Amino acid sequence: MSDQQTINHIGFVESISDQTATVKINSQSACASCHAKGACTAADQSEKVLTVGTEGREYSAGEQVRVFIARRTGLRAVAYGYFYPFLVLMTILIILTAMGVSELQAGIWSLASLVPYYLVIYILKDRISNSFTFKLEKII
């Protein structure tokens, strides 16, 4: 895959089981790589653990690998996690406000409308996770 079409992170294989590898990556915001991050409280860095199919290749625990995901897939994840809930929240807020419901109640109901959204996402997590495929590559 070309670099323009993929998002990639370097990680370490934590464990191997059957046809999957558990990989730990350090995910960081653009601020975290900034030279002034020590003086700024906006810097963000966290560890993420992914389960990735090995596709029949041999990996060992502790090995450094590069994890790839298609950029389109990453954008879909952002849509599920941020964009669609925002649309739900704003739609409910606008409709309730237009119906004459007080702002406080409209805000509370708008926030409460996210509960069913995330419940549906949780129920469908297995189906959704099958559409997010990661690929591994050894770093030599």
Topology, pairings included?
Elements: E1 6-17, E2 20-28, E3 45-53, E4 64-70, H1 71-98, H2 103-112, H3 114-123, H4 125-130, E5 134-138
Antiparallel strand pairs: 1-2, 1-4, 2-3, 4-5
Helix pairs in contact: 1-2, 1-3
Question: How would you sum up this structure, described in words?
Answer:
This protein is of the alpha+beta class. It has one domain (6-138). 39% of the residues lie in helices and 30% in strands. The chain contains 4 helices and 5 strands; from the N terminus they run E-E-E-E-H-H-H-H-E. It has helices at residues 71-98, 103-112, 114-123, 125-130; strands spanning 6-17, 20-28, 45-53, 64-70, 134-138. The chain has a 5-stranded antiparallel β-sheet with strand order 3-2-1-4-5. Helix 1 (71-98) packs antiparallel against helix 3. The longest helix is centred in the middle third of the chain and has 28 residues, at 71-98. The radius of gyration is 20 Å and the shape is elongated. The chain starts with 5 loop residues before the first strand and ends with a strand. The relative contact order is 0.18.
Q: How far apart are the termini? A: 18 Å
Cα-atom radius of gyration: 20 Å
Q: What is the helix tally?
A: 4
- Strand fraction: 25-35%
- pLDDT < 50 runs, ≥5 residues: none
**What is the overall pLDDT average?**
83
* Number of DSSP E strands: 5
Structural class: alpha+beta
* Sheet having the most strands: 5 strands, antiparallel
